[in-house]
Amino acid sequence: MEKTLKIPLSELRTVRLVCNRADCGGVAEMPTDRLDGLTGAVSCPSCGHALMPRTIGSISGLKALGMTLKSLAGEPGFSVEFVLSAPVGHPDV
Ligand SMILES: [Zn+2]
């Protein structure tokens, strides 16, 4: 059995980038409403590694995500929600 959480798009306010370098795990957080203005890489606050997203077309994936989120937030005919599921009894539910 699962429990689901429905998260409205408007509540997605922060994106976390977790550095995957060995023994690092540094986290860079950014407001979702600023992603569309990103230029270049984000630096890991712990090790300084460039957290460079792949590009989609000619723009970075993070910038594309920001543009997409803003576009969807302005849809007049429907609202977007994200669904998280977890087994009942999961400590986070
Ligand atoms: Zn790092």
Explained architecture:
The protein has one helix and eight strands; from the N terminus they run E-E-E-E-E-E-E-H-E. The chain has 93 residues and is an alpha+beta fold. It has one domain. The strands form four sheets. The chain has a two-stranded antiparallel sheet with strand order 1-8. The chain is flat, with a radius of gyration of 16 Å. The two termini are 13 Å apart. The mean pLDDT is 91.
What is the fold's blueprint, element by element?
Blueprint: E1 2-8, E2 14-18, E3 27-31, E4 42-43, E5 50-51, E6 55-56, E7 59-60, H1 61-73, E8 81-87
Antiparallel strand pairs: 1-8, 2-3, 4-5, 6-7
The protein binds zinc ion.
* Alpha-beta classification: alpha+beta
The coarse overall form would be: flat
Q: Into which percent range does the helicity of residues fall?
A: 10-25%
What's the number of domains? 1
Strand order of the largest sheet: 1-8
Tally of DSSP β-strands:
8
Total DSSP helices: 1
User: What ions, cofactors and ligands are bound?
Assistant: zinc ion
Strand content: 25-35%
Order of helices and strands: EEEEEEEHE
Average pLDDT works out at 91
Distance between the termini: 13 Å
Radius of gyration: 16 Å
Outline:
By secondary structure, this protein is an alpha+beta fold.
